[in-house]
Design a protein that fits this description.
Mean pLDDT: 81
CATH topology of the largest domain: Rossmann fold
Strand order of the largest sheet: 3-8-7-4
CATH architecture of the largest domain: 3-Layer(aba) Sandwich
CATH class of the largest domain: Alpha Beta
Number of helices: 8
Number of strands: 8
Strand content: 15-25%
Structural class: alpha/beta
Shape: globular
Low-confidence stretches: 1-24, 255-259
Helix content: 25-40%
Length: 259
């Protein structure tokens, strides 16, 4: 029997204890006790630290301390689709927070520091945040913005998948992970202007199933100009989707002045 003790802040296995000597008569209570002991030892040796300020962090689900969490800025937008720069094919748009230095570190950890579980917990947090300030429309299915298979292989996961799972857990909405594919490898959008972004993602998504009369909610981490989600929305509507809602963790602060 192998027991694994994980530290959520590091996202990897820290202790692997083989318990052959306990034999087959080991009770679940004994195993649970040993796991608890291992967890205490692990957190003593590797205490959780905040992703942002590196101080001790009791909140090991979101990965940031209470002080840094308070620096997140809720948009309180409600549906702001009319203010999305490229809102073609998008019927509704919601974002939980403004993109700031805290969120820059959080999203960097999702993508590049092997911490997808934090994306799951932020997805749960997003669902509850949106419901505070708006009447989120009833949707039939969640679809995370897909990565190209090469990028997903290199990263090991798609952070949008994990955000969508968190949202689904809170809102009880089904997710489709395989009905939408990114069929063309593209460079990152981060350094591109609006026109370049639109060209970069044009015709790169393909739906493999019908979405006849379904209201689809597209999930991603950041909505900047809307080019990526609009390209996904186009593919979904070509597959028969009736309406498209965009839901992201954050969006640039400049949007506040346009509401």
């Amino acid at each position: 029997m192998n027991l694994y003790c994980f530290d959520n802040n590091y996202g990897s296995s820290l202790i692997n204890l083989t318990l052959y000597e306990l034999g087959t008569s080991t009770t679940m209570k004994t195993v649970a006790y040993i796991k608890t002991v291992l967890k205490v030892i692990t957190h003593f040796v590797y205490p959780n630290s905040c992703l942002i300020c590196k101080s001790f962090c009791k909140n090991d689900t979101l990965g940031i301390c209470t002080g840094c969490l308070s620096k997140l800025e809720p948009t309180m937008h409600g549906d702001w689709v009319n203010n999305v720069t490229n809102n073609t094919f998008i019927d509704h748009a919601y974002s939980g927070w403004f993109f700031n230095d805290v969120f820059q570190n959080v999203i960097h950890s999702f993508k590049y520091l092997d911490r997808p579980k934090f994306a799951f917990h932020f997805g749960r947090y997003l669902a509850n945040e949106i419901l505070k300030y708006s009447q989120f429309p009833p949707v039939d299915m969640l679809i995370p913005v897909p990565l190209h298979p090469v990028k997903k292989r290199d990263r090991g996961y798609n952070q949008a998948d994990w955000i969508a799972q968190g949202v689904a857990k809170e809102l009880n909405i089904p997710i489709s992970f395989n009905s939408l594919k990114k069929i063309k490898y593209t460079p990152s959008q981060t350094t591109l202007n609006m026109e370049e972004r639109e060209k970069n993602v044009a015709s790169v998504f393909h739906c493999s199933q019908s979405f006849n009369d379904l209201h689809i909610c597209i999930i991603d981490d950041v909505l900047t100009t809307g080019s990526t989600i609009s390209a996904v929305a186009k593919a979904c509507k070509e597959a028969g989707a009736k309406k498209i809602t965009a839901l992201t963790l954050c969006t640039p602060k400049i949007k506040r002045d346009k509401i």
